[in-house]
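F.,

This is the one I mentioned.
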């Protein structure tokens, strides 16, 4: 019966590993979360070994029974992690050897820890993608619900953080929805790339045993097998994909957060957040701070950092497995945990938003936000747009000088800018008229926002 400190490669060495080196090279404190995936992979590999005649049916039954006991031991908290065993693969293998002896020693036939960890990581990323996509859909549904509620509620649209044109809050929310839809598509697309099985690639060159790789892939619900053994154990593109997609998604969550933080500030006061997603100040009793959203904004940098981390790990690595790749788990696990937490935090925040309709509508009237509509009015009277732009610019300058809004300028004064301006100009200069005139596909008019909401509902209900 093997001792739990026995290493799979110790036959080559005449000295014991230095205690510091054991701790420095061990990954068990991190990769023990791969236990389920390692057990699945080992079950599939063992079934394949029985299929090709390397294990007997009796031996396979022993292996599968022992694996179930190991899994129970791990998840009951009874497993003792040992740095001398380095990683989750060796912990499981040594437990099996303790339980069923020499039969367990056959399991590694045709398999290396190189293709084993590549398989575990693909299985892990595959599940993480599913969790992320599900979380995006939950957030999208909350956005749709809020957009329906405020589909015709007017607020300012900004460019350069200056009031630009009146829009509706529902329209802004739907812009967020479609950003998230692209994020979801990126993850779904990358699922196809991760969903191929590298097991059976061995250390780097394949195996001299007649392994049935396609059978293993089928048992693990992979769509197929990887094409080249060397690439199979070298590849970490699927991790880069996941963290890159996460970085783009986090940039969107950060932008949503920034907008909400600005809107709920005392100066803007467009929206209110529920107390349950805010915190207070230790010194200023009146404060209500959007800390959840600020943390989403801050943790975006954490995921960006992990993208640089994984890109640096794989940069200039020679092919096949190198121990640098042990560090990919830190980047991946931290990224996935952070992203899923931030998606949950954003969903909770979106749920708590209440629009201060009157304040937002009043703000939309500032900054001469209907000036473009004024120019379009002149264009409809056959004035070339550049000329119309100049006429409106002069009218705005006049209004600023006289401290007037555009709808406060008299028709007599308007005639000084263009004889084509008539009484109907005042209908054009309202924020309601501006919003309702934007009837191009994808526009902010109420009808177009409703169309966007209908499309969004179909997108979140469509099976992936």
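My design for it:
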């Amino acid at each position: 019966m093997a001792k739990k400190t026995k290493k799979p490669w110790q036959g080559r060495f005449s000295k014991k590993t230095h205690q510091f080196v054991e701790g420095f090279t061990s990954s068990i404190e991190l990769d023990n979360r791969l236990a389920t995936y390692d057990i699945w992979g080992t079950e599939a590999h063992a079934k394949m070994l029985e299929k090709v005649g390397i294990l007997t049916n009796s031996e396979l039954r022993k292996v599968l029974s022992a694996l179930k006991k190991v899994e129970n031991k791990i998840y009951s908290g009874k497993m003792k992690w040992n740095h001398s065993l380095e990683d989750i693969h060796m912990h499981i293998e040594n437990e099996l050897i303790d339980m069923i002896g020499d039969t367990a020693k056959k399991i590694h036939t045709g398999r290396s820890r190189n293709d084993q960890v590549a398989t575990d990581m693909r299985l892990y990323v595959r599940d993480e993608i599913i969790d992320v996509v599900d979380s995006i859909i939950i957030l999208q549904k909350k956005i749709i619900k809020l957009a329906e509620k405020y589909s015709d509620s007017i607020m300012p649209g900004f460019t350069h953080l200056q009031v630009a044109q009146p829009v509706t809050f529902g329209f802004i929310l739907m812009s967020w929805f479609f950003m998230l839809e692209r994020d979801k598509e990126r993850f779904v697309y990358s699922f196809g790339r991760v969903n191929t099985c590298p097991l059976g690639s061995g250390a780097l060159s394949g195996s001299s045993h007649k392994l049935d790789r396609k059978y293993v892939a089928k048992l693990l619900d992979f769509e197929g097998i990887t094409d080249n053994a060397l690439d199979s154990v070298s590849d970490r593109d699927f991790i880069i994909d996941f963290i890159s997609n996460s970085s783009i998604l986090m940039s969107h969550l950060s932008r949503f957060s920034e907008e909400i933080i600005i809107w709920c500030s005392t100066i803007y006061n467009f929206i209110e957040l529920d107390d349950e997603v805010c915190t207070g100040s230790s010194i200023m009793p009146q404060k209500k701070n959007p800390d959840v959203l600020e943390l989403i904004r801050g943790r975006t940098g954490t995921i960006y950092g992990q993208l640089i981390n994984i890109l640096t790990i794989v940069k200039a690595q020679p092919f096949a497995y190198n121990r640098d790749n042990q560090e990919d788990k830190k980047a991946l696990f931290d990224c996935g945990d952070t992203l899923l937490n931030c998606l949950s935090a954003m969903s909770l925040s979106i749920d708590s938003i209440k629009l201060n309709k009157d304040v937002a509508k009043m703000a939309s009237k500032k900054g001469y936000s209907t000036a473009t509509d004024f120019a379009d009015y002149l264009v409809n009277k056959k004035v070339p747009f550049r000329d119309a732009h100049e006429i409106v610019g002069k009218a705005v300058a006049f209004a600023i000088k006289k401290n007037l809004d555009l709808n406060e300028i008299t028709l007599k004064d308007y005639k000084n800018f263009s004889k084509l301006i008539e009484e109907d100009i005042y209908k054009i200069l309202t924020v309601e008229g501006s919003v309702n005139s934007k009837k191009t596909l994808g526009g902010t008019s109420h009808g177009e926002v409703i169309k966007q909401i209908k499309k969004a509902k179909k997108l979140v209900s469509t099976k992936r």
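The first strand starts at residue 154 and ends at 159.

Talk soon.
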